[in-house]
Amino acid sequence: MSDQVTALVKNLRNEVPDCLAAGVVDMATGMLLSVDTVDTHPTEVLDLLAGATLDLFQGRTVVMIEDLFKERRGVSTAQHYFQEILVNSDNLTHLFIRNTQNEDIVAVVVCRKSLNVGMLFAQARRVVKEHSGH
Predict the structure, then answer these.
(1) Phi, psi at residue 66, to the nearest 5°?
(2) Rounded CA gap, 45 and 39, in Å?
């Protein structure tokens, strides 16, 4: 699995436009499995990225919203409702995408905010799909 995760991160960094950093978070453990960035960051920041990703996708309130949507729509699957989350900060755009084959794996891509968001989604989705066995 570690070779696949490393390859995914490398391909995201190389193929997503204006990509400054890419990483993979394991939602089951809350650990950052791999990261590649143009800057150096303190370990604490990278550890917080994994925790923040976990909160975004599986925080208590998020799970409550997912459960409510499932109940209202009559969905009984254990699949998570939220698959992608886009976050804009002052200078950066962060895209979080669940792996379609293993929902516990989330790819994180950080790009300059000036990028074309459509290209970000298209390229990141393509790379994640290639690495998820489809």
Answers:
(1) -60, -45
(2) 12
Q: What is the pLDDT of residue 39?
A: 81
Residue found by looking up tokens 């499995």 in the block: 33
**Confidence band of 107 (pLDDT split at 50, 70, 90):** very high
| Rounded distance between C-alpha atoms, residue 119 and residue 121, angstroms | 5
107: domain CATH number?
3.30.450.30
Q: Which tokens go with 34?
A: 């791999």
**Tally of domains in the chain:** 1
- Tell me the whole-structure pTM to 2 decimals: 0.89
DSSP string, 61-127: HHHHHHHHHHHHHT------S--EEEEE-SSEEEEEEE-SS-TTEEEEEEEETTS-HHHHHHHHHHH
Closest CA to 41 of 92, 113, 95, 98: 92
Flag whether pLDDT at 12 surpasses 90.
yes
Under 8 Å between Cβ of 126 and 41: no
Domain that includes residue 101, residue range: 2-130
